[in-house]
Write a structure and sequence with these properties.
Elements lengths: L7 H22 L5 H37 L2 H36 L5 H4 L8 H32 L7 H34 L1
The structure holds protoporphyrin IX containing FE.
Length: 200
Amino acid sequence: MGGLLGTPGKALALGAVASLLVLVVALATGSGIDAVGLIAVLLRWLHVGAAIVWLGMVWFVNFIKLVAIAEADQPGRGAILKHIVPRVALTFRRASHLTVVTGAMLLFTSGYLGGSLVYASAVFIPTSRNILMWAGVVAAMAMYMFVHMMIWPGLRLVLGIETGTAEKVAAARAKVATYARWNLVLSVPVTLAMVAAAHS
Ligand code: HEM
């Protein structure tokens, strides 16, 4: 395997080029789109992509990694902690940043915030959509805080980036597992709220 498929980055770039080609063809044959509309589409694309990666990691951690660590022998556990966990942690931390930043920008392009700044006049959003969106945002921000204030600090101890007593490391391991579970719980209503807000 080489060339365009040689690294995940190149494969991702190939997918992005193919997507943009489809978008250009669709725009050329359609009735046109204004600049804000185009930005909103691209933002939504990035937002959903980042959310897929983040939630993919949440599912991976809960259904695969924690189970594998519980079942593995000592060398296996060491290998998982050395080769897999740091990469997973870096990926979900970055994906969570991108999801929140693009989500915050979408609040403006979708009219939930500052509609009259982006468009010619304020955007009317029905109450039901506002409830769905803001409930989704609150739950998603709780997920974000769990990642950066509970899971990552705990993982730093588990991975030995920070040193601590055996009791502290054991408590950190339990904390990471608990908040990974909470993020699995919250990922379900957040996804429903976001999709329902966008399509109702
Ligand atoms: C785990 C976190 C999140 C997930 C899984 C998620 C997922 C999604 C999904 C699937 C959509 C629907 C796109 C569509 O069907 O068009 C969406 C839309 C949206 N999301 Fe998120 N999102 C998350 C976090 C956030 C955050 C933190 C914010 C704001 C700070 C946000 C703001 C928005 C907005 C404004 C829309 C567009 C809604 C509309 O057009 O009515 N999201 N999100």
